[in-house]
């Protein structure tokens, strides 16, 4: 029997099938065009995504195909789907990058006792719509007609699972994903959730390992509760490593996890985009975030235009060069103007404009870009580590396949054990583990490649 997993990222949508030993035996990707919300802001095309997910699973389960007995969904967080009594969405899946109105934010902080107290209690910096619970507060204030029609507000991973189970649920890894909903100091929803009346919109909470049997394409399938992708990426490492470690999960966001820290977050750490996530068991996980992949994509696109590399992902072919590293790492002055990479406290500085004329070749430009980005990455790893020495660092996700990224990590953390995932499976594998029995998950031997530093 097989386990099917949807892993829904902001850019790539992935469908995987695992065998009884949790080895991946099938994988397919797609990218879907965005649509726009009623304000013209780009966002996920929810009907198109829903159609793709249902069609993909139906094709996989056709006679002669995969014998799917379990299904789970991992998606990006900080997003809600609001459904009516018939289970139909009443509003778009609003983009977490959509600006949050400043007057509404000021009103909210007046209600909750101030910004700093709110951020400390919810273990997250103020991120606007990225504090996804505030999307509901915004909807209540700015879209009262749509708000009045909501029966359930489902975190995105739980909505993806709901498409197949028909069971509305809430789940800890989604609740704890910088939503502004959970009071980590009290171990429950923050007072504002009930005070504003939005608490009634959240279905009962289940663990990420929960599952329910549903009829899917005419077959009984155990459908998982859904899981936040970053927490899913962490799960295989928690089950595979008995000693303390950090995990650097890479992609659109590069997130460094420290599941062994128990120190409360300070206002200074929150200002550097340090925050708490949740493990599948509800325990907090200290993490630091960097919008690394988003800025990387923007810069490499501009770089390609400047150097006439407009076809394909040219940067995949550029490998680490020691001479270029020595040349470009010696200068502390920023060469690149960063557009989307900034801390909540505004302390990241970059060049007023990119100095393209300083680079004789695209290889030089790419090395210098990665050196500047990796300086920020090193700081983010150390922030998540806190007082804990960095002795073991797992690396997962898309950048784990980058020769230059890994070699620069080697330079930044001499003496540490760097353990690199051989393929970017983390979120999908974690979701598959969550929906399978504990014994299967614990007996799985996570195949990792060690890089001596």
Automatic annotation (TrEMBL):
One of its GO terms (cellular component) is cytosol. It comes from uncultured Cytophagales bacterium. This is Rhamnulokinase RhaK in alpha-proteobacteria. Residues 243-437 form the Carbohydrate kinase FGGY C-terminal domain. Belongs to the FGGY kinase family. Residues 5-192 form the Carbohydrate kinase FGGY N-terminal domain. The keyword Cell membrane does not apply. Pfam families: FGGY_C_2, FGGY_N.
